[in-house]
Design a protein that fits this description.
Length: 174
């Protein structure tokens, strides 16, 4: 069964182009996400969300703001019969080159440390960017690209194992 790693913006919620989700009202779930996570809960031993959140590093939001957004989201997931075992985030700016920031694999290593049964080579990374796919590939995971930019897979086919238009489409086929 393995573990499932999910990116957030563009996979779970609508991405704000050239902006940041800084409050719960801006965190708009993509259709089918709650159903997808409910399906995943039956297929994966662990489910993690891994997300770069440099809006914190830029001072646009606080850790408490992020905790409010994620707390609300986790309640929605549980009410729909799903689960997320842990949310990992990196507040560092891209320019800081933090090992915890995707595409570096710090969050995957942290999940493996926190959940010793996690075997990255038996895990899946789902994301919507080349950075997410590189994170998954570097960690030895199967990679699944979702979203409305399938050309990422055409430009970097060595990074993408599977493509689906959205998370629910993948859930129904995993």
């Amino acid at each position: 069964m393995g573990a499932l790693f999910l990116d957030r913006d563009g996979v779970i919620n609508r991405r704000i182009i050239d902006g940041y989700v800084t409050r719960r009202e801006d965190f708009v779930l993509i259709d089918g996400v709650l159903e997808a996570i409910s399906i995943f809960a039956r297929h994966f031993d662990h489910i993690f969300m891994v997300t770069n959140q440099q809006g914190i590093g830029k001072g646009l939001m606080t850790e408490a703001d992020l905790a409010d957004i994620h707390g609300w989201f986790l309640k929605q997931v549980e009410a729909a019969g799903g689960r997320i075992d842990r949310i990992y985030h990196c507040p560092a700016l891209k320019a800081e080159h933090s090992f915890m920031r995707k595409p570096s694999i710090g969050m995957a290593i942290q999940a493996r440390h926190d959940f010793p049964g996690v075997v990255l080579k038996q895990s899946v990374m789902v994301g919507d960017t080349a950075s997410d796919m590189l994170f998954g590939r570097r960690a030895g995971m199967t990679t699944v690209l979702v979203g409305d930019e399938p050309e990422i897979g055409r430009k970097t086919p060595h990074l993408v194992d599977y493509y689906y238009p959205d998370l629910l489409s993948y859930a129904k086929n995993c």
